[in-house]
Design a protein that fits this description.
Distance between the termini: 26 Å
Number of helices: 30
Helix content: 55-70%
Radius of gyration: 44 Å
Number of strands: 23
Shape: elongated
Strand content: 5-15%
Structural class: alpha+beta
Largest sheet: 6 strands, mixed, barrel
Length: 998
């Protein structure tokens, strides 16, 4: 019992160490669990929402639309739980200029169901539900009416690759009808599209550079009033996928098994079958046209034949009359009256030659008969010509049918192809990667501080430890006094850290996340396993340090422990050997130098602890600076043009005329811009980037005219980059990179994510969905977006195929060598504000699809989520620095109580004692700051390398002000700690402190 009482008394006496260990554990556990819990809560709530709304696992699109046969084939695929055929139509309407929307049919099979936020779901024809973004932009409300106009290509089936289909389908197939929706609409509800959770009332500007929407808005309509048997897409739910988290690898593997099956035989067979359906439909239309023409020609021929027969009968009658009259005259002039009578009783028989001669003579003698014969002959000739012409036309159509109908292509996509889903996942993954890295530093600092504190605690009780061991207490029992002390501190600190980690930090992160995304049903949850492991991690680290401290002392005999510890042997420090410097240092300065460098353990612990905290602060500020400069670097340094204007192919000429007529452009470059994909398949041979690398990235394919390849450098800064280490990259000289006909130039943001380098082979998909293998000639410095630059000649070499020519918006066979330059890069005159206003005015023109001002993008680019996390990390790092300095300062004082007492006896005033002790701490703090500043830059580089996000490359940037802030903050914490330490120095009693320990 006395042993326990003494242990409790010892614990109470060491309350400062207890608080230090508890606080360090609290901060470490909070960092370890907080960011993880916030991201996990967001992941889980989003996954529950997706399951409740039936967000599709797989989406199938086709360049020729989908038929009932396609849907039936998908239902037979092993692993498919449900298939929903969907119809949609693109429409336009007037809302402060021409706006576009997608009319989306609300499926009846429970897939991709919109989430009702206000009002009710549409039920009757003409009723629609709209998104909150449309309500905000339009100022309309529930009950408002809207009239829309179907786009000219409303029958197209759109997909995320920019491939349109069904144009040729509807022209050649009479059985398939494109979807058609009512045009006079009434808003009855406000919904959330599960495919896009972006918050229109939050930080919408920050993700605009990643927007993949092809239309401005989405309207949801019921099946009532929708016509058409051709489906724009098919959405699928996979068996067992709902039981997995949509953000886990297990979910991706489950879905991939089904997509692989569809990509196997089903996709190939249905592509061929669908094309054959189109061919059969075309052949049927030709056969029907031939049958109808043959019937008309037969009727016409019958009419001509009847008229000719009547004509011939009339002529033959005249011939017979003339022949009979001639025979009668000849008989009357003869001698035999009987013969005359016999001849008059019968018509004389004429041979065919004589009869034909008489016909021609009679017709020639009669103008009426001549005209009638000519009319009959002309009618027959015209009929024959029409028959020949029709047959030639039908033969031509038969020959052209196979070439006029392109090969049907299917696109099988999973949730990763949804822009809203991939943006949310990448944001949370990047934050979670930070949450996985920073706790390591906290753990190392916690172990170091615990070792320092517990080593000092054990050393203070060495005589008591020797006494207990001498009395027969086991070493384990004695060590348990300190192990239980450290364990209790860790458990209390860890428990408080779990509260902060599963409640405080997630609540803060989720507030920021909800400013970016709408996540219904979001709630905070506790993870017992992760929380317990988080505490256990720090418990193990701190107990290991405590065990080490106990073993170091208890390896001695009880007699040695009960005697005072021998003072360290005197030794010279390196500075003493530099005589010119040493001789000029005052007495107290020499004492300070000896105290700092002779006690190496204290030097290492103090400098290491301060350096770690400073590095954390610098690291957080480095990430903040890197993100803050992304927009400026990209849109002012890399993009040298001021305006990018994009139009439809049909409006390209009108767009260029419009921009030229405004007189704002000082120089320009016509290009072709398409949305596509860049894919790297893991091969391991080094030709495709990193060995074993794989992945796909959405890109902006920019084709440059062959006569203006040299002008690209005037609009875009071309700088070759090479892979570096720790977040750095080697950047070549500006202008040293040239676009040629031997390969493509890939943006650094895409190359970094996929492991692509100069000389790699990649798979490019253009705007028509045509794929080709291309060589990467260079990697260009690029931070935002994924541009791939290709020359006109190399583009034609890659994509100049029959499929490309026959695909919508691609080149015809007559002008296959000429691309349509649908975009313009231009430099403008005027201020940034005027350039932004000009870009906004251009978007109101009907010939302009998109106008982007670089000045506006540079000013509006934000990444608030990362800024919030950085602020959190800097605050926690500052708290850790304060605790570390407090622990080290108190340990330093407790080790030198007799020294301080001696100084007081020698006549030092309290302020002089303060200066004597604090000067050492400040010097050690400065040394830690000097070491921590470059260390923070190093750690920041490694962390930014881990932040792989779609279309973003983090080029590490640390501003001088950030170094100053980190150094000043650490020094301020050191000064603050002095305010707590000085009273402790004042309370040192020289008499009791200098008593002999004997």
């Amino acid at each position: 019992m006395a042993f326990v009482k003494d242990m409790l008394r010892m614990w109470a006496h060491s309350w400062k160490r207890f608080i230090s260990i508890a606080m360090i554990t609290l901060l470490g556990v909070a960092v370890l669990t907080g960011i993880y819990a916030g991201c996990r809560d967001a992941f889980r709530s989003t996954d529950r929402f997706f399951d409740a709304q039936g967000l599709h696992d797989v989406q199938v699109l086709s360049t020729a639309g989908l038929s009932n046969g396609d849907i039936a084939a998908l239902r037979k695929v092993n692993g498919v739980a449900k298939v929903q055929a969907e119809r949609s139509q693109e429409v336009t309407f007037d809302l402060d200029g021409r706006k576009s929307a997608t009319m989306q049919e609300i499926g009846t099979d429970g897939i991709d169901q919109p989430y009702l936020q206000e009002g009710r779901m549409p039920k009757k024809a003409g009723e629609i539900a709209v998104t909150r973004k449309f309500i905000r932009d339009s100022g309309k409300r529930i009950g408002s009416r809207l009239t829309v106009t179907p786009e000219s290509a409303s029958s197209d089936t759109s997909d995320t690759n920019g491939t349109n289909g069904a144009d040729g389908t509807n022209e050649t197939s009479g059985t398939d009808e494109a979807p058609s929706f009512p045009t006079k609409l009434t808003i009855v509800g406000v919904v959330l599209d599960p495919q896009n959770l972006s918050n229109p009332d939050g930080y919408s500007a920050m993700t605009s550079f990643r927007s993949t929407a092809t239309t401005d808005y989405t309207f949801f309509a019921p099946s009532d009033g929708v016509t058409g048997t051709l489906y724009t897409s098919a959405t699928l739910l996979v068996k067992g996928a709902a039981a997995e988290s949509t953000f886990d690898e297990s979910y991706e593997n489950t879905v991939k098994q089904v997509t692989d099956r569809i990509d196997g035989t089903v996709k190939t067979d249905r592509q061929k079958a669908r094309r054959q359906e189109l061919l059969d439909a075309g052949n049927k239309k030709i056969a029907d046209a031939r049958a109808e023409a043959d019937k008309k020609f037969a009727d016409a021929q019958s009419q001509i034949d009847a008229n000719r027969q009547q004509f011939n009968q009339q002529v033959d009658q005249i011939v017979s009359m003339q022949a009979g009259a001639a025979a009668a005259g000849a008989a009357a002039n003869g001698a035999n009256a009987g013969a005359a009578a016999a001849a008059g009783a019968t018509t004389p028989q004429l041979d065919e030659t004589t009869r034909e001669t008489m016909r021609e003579t009679i017709i020639a003698a009669s103008p009426e008969l001549t005209q009638a014969k000519q009319q009959l002959d002309q009618a027959q000739s015209q009929l024959n010509e029409q028959k020949a012409s029709t047959e030639h036309t039908l033969k031509t159509k038969e020959n052209e049918l196979k070439t006029s109908i392109p090969q049907v292509r299917w696109y099988v996509q999973d949730r990763q192809s949804l822009g809203g889903f991939s943006a949310l996942k990448s944001d949370l993954d990047s934050i979670q990667s930070l949450g996985n890295a920073f706790p390591i530093v906290f753990l190392l600092v916690a172990v170091m501080m615990s070792l320092t504190a517990m080593a000092r605690m054990v050393e203070e009780d060495r005589s008591l430890i020797g006494t207990y061991v001498g009395l027969g207490y086991g070493r384990l029992a004695v060590a348990s006094r300190y192990l239980l002390f450290a364990l209790l501190a860790c458990l209390i600190g860890g428990g408080l850290g779990l509260i902060a980690g599963f409640l405080g930090i997630p609540a803060f992160l989720l507030v920021v996340l909800q400013g970016m995304y709408v996540m219904p049903g979001l709630r905070l949850e506790y993870d017992w396993l992760y929380g317990s492991l988080g505490i256990a991690l720090f418990v193990v680290g701190v107990l290991a340090a405590t065990i080490y401290a106990c073993v170091q002392e208890m390896r001695q005999t009880p007699a040695a422990l009960m005697r005072p510890k021998a003072p360290r042997a005197g030794s010279r420090i390196l500075l003493e050997r530099i005589r010119p410097v040493w001789n000029r240092i005052g007495f107290l300065g020499k004492v300070t130098a000896r105290n700092i460098f002779r006690f190496k353990s204290r030097l290492i612990m103090t400098v290491g602890g301060v350096a770690g905290c400073t590095a954390l602060i610098v690291c957080g500020l480095a990430i903040n600076d890197t993100v803050a400069d992304l927009g400026i670097k990209q849109y002012r340094d890399i993009y040298r043009y001021d305006l990018m204007v994009v139009s439809d192919d049909s409006d390209a000429s009108a767009m260029r005329t419009k921009v030229a007529s405004d007189g704002r452009v000082t120089s320009s470059l016509d290009v072709r811009i398409e949305s596509g994909d860049l894919t790297v398949a893991g091969s391991g041979d080094g030709d495709s980037g990193k060995a074993g690398s794989s992945g796909s990235e959405s890109i902006q394919l920019v084709a440059v005219p062959k006569k203006h390849l040299s002008d690209l450098g005037e609009m875009v800064t071309l700088q070759p980059v090479s892979s570096g280490i720790l977040g750095t990259s080697g950047v070549g000289k500006t202008g040293s990179l040239k676009l040629d006909d031997d390969g493509v130039i890939v943006a650094q943001s895409a190359a970094s994510a996929l492991g692509v380098k100069a000389g790699s082979k990649v798979r490019l998909t253009n705007g028509d969905g045509v794929q080709a293998t291309a060589k990467v000639s260079a990697v260009n410095r690029n931070l935002i977006g994924s541009d791939v630059y290709v020359s006109e000649t190399y583009y034609a070499k890659l994509f100049d195929s029959k499929d490309a020519k026959n695909t919508k918006n691609s080149k015809s066979s007559e002008d296959s060598e000429a691309l349509t330059w649908n975009a313009m890069l231009a430099k403008l005159s005027g201020s940034d504000t005027s350039q932004t206003d000009y870009a906004e005015s251009l978007e109101e023109d009907s010939s302009v699809m998109k106008a982007v001002s670089c000045a506006h993008m540079a000013d509006s680019f934000k990444f608030d989520l990362m800024g919030a996390v950085v602020a959190l990390i800097v605050a926690l790092a500052g708290g850790l620095a304060l605790v570390v300095l407090f622990t080290l300062a108190n340990t330093n004082v407790s080790e030198r109580v007799r020294e301080m007492a001696t100084l007081k006896v020698l006549g030092f005033f309290d302020r002089e004692v303060h200066h004597y002790v604090n000067r050492e701490m400040m010097i050690l703090t400065v040394m830690g700051v000097i070491l921590g500043l470059p260390l923070g830059r190093l750690v920041g580089g490694m962390l930014t390398m881990a932040l792989n996000m779609p279309s973003l490359y983090f080029e590490v940037e640390v501003k001088p002000l950030s170094y100053v802030i980190a150094a000043v903050a650490t020094m301020a914490f050191a000064l603050l700690v002095q305010l707590f330490v000085n009273p402790v120095l004042d309370r040192i009693d020289p008499i009791s402190s200098l008593k002999s320990v004997e």
